[in-house]
Design a protein that fits this description.
Radius of gyration: 18 Å
Strand content: 15-25%
Bound molecules: nicotinamide-adenine-dinucleotide
Low-confidence stretches: none
Structural class: alpha/beta
Helix content: 25-40%
Number of helices: 8
Largest sheet: 6 strands, parallel
Length: 234
């Protein structure tokens, strides 16, 4: 069976946090929390209307106080703690629910709602409250340069080198709650296939393309704990 492979790489998307109360990205509407992606997830949108973009991510940051990790986040933390091989968790999510569930080896490839990026000094700083144009960078103390530390469309995701190394060495690749529409994350399954990894999809429904060897479909709080239990019992 494929589960003898030592190294697991997991890619999570908005679907894993849906049952915690955070809306997914595309849904049936093509919108993210009722906003057009072009307006709130591009540099052009930020330049066009910075106040709207600050407020959008301020709302996302505030929302984190009202949500808690669910059983799927918990199961992945348990997998990392108990699996004898290495587990790398790559998330497209900007929430911090994986960390709050106890996962330690997490790569936030699209940045985090609870972080600020300074265009003056390049520092990435933890950010808890609201952010606005006049906010001071806590590193260089200058105003006017802060933006949400989010990788927007057209920008290069964080830690791609580390991600590629993990994928090259992986025996099992697991995609959880992601639609496979956003690149480069959507291409990870093909990299995994090239290195001969066993590819597993856990989602509400199968995504198109047939790129996976194994799929379990249903709510993340059901399919993820059950898959983790299966892996840990081998
Ligand atoms: P997506 O919204 O495009 O796709 C969500 C996927 O999750 C779909 O395939 C859907 O079938 C599945 N899904 C929905 N509810 C589920 C459930 N309860 N259990 C299992 N699967 C479920 O998400 P994406 O592919 O991650 O792309 C969205 C982008 O938007 C990401 O880059 C991310 O940065 C951003 N985003 C982040 C958050 C967050 O941080 N929680 C939320 C929305 C969007």
């Amino acid at each position: 069976m494929p589960y003898d492979f030592p190294s697991i790489v997991i890619l999570t998307g908005a679907g894993i946090s849906a049952e915690s109360g955070l809306q997914t990205f595309r849904g049936d509407t093509g919108l993210w929390e009722d906003h057009r992606v072009e307006d709130v997830a591009t540099v052009q949108g930020f330049h066009r209307n910075p106040s709207l973009v600050y407020e959008f991510y301020n709302a996302r940051r505030r929302q984190l106080q009202d949500v808690t990790p669910n059983g799927a986040h918990d199961a992945l933390a348990q997998l990392e703690a108990e699996y004898p091989g290495s587990v790398t968790l790559i998330t497209q999510n900007i929430d911090d629910l994986h960390e709050r569930a106890g996962s330690q080896n997490v790569v936030h490839m699209h940045g985090q709602a609870s972080s600020a990026l300074c265009s003056h000094c390049g520092a990435r700083c933890s950010w808890k409250g609201d952010m606005k144009e006049s906010s001071l960078c806590s590193h260089c103390q200058r105003a006017g340069g802060l933006r949400p530390d989010i990788v927007w469309f057209g920008e290069i995701p964080y830690e791609m080198e580390r991600i590629e190394k993990a994928l090259e060495a992986c025996g099992i690749f697991v995609s959880i709650g992601t639609s496979g529409n956003v690149y480069p994350a959507a291409g990870f399954v093909n990299l995994a296939r090239q290195v001969g990894a066993h590819r597993v999809e856990l989602n509400l429904e199968a995504t198109s393309g047939g790129a996976f060897d194994e799929g379990h479909y249903g709510l993340a709080t059901q399919v993820v704990p059950s898959w983790v239990k299966k892996v840990l019992s081998r």
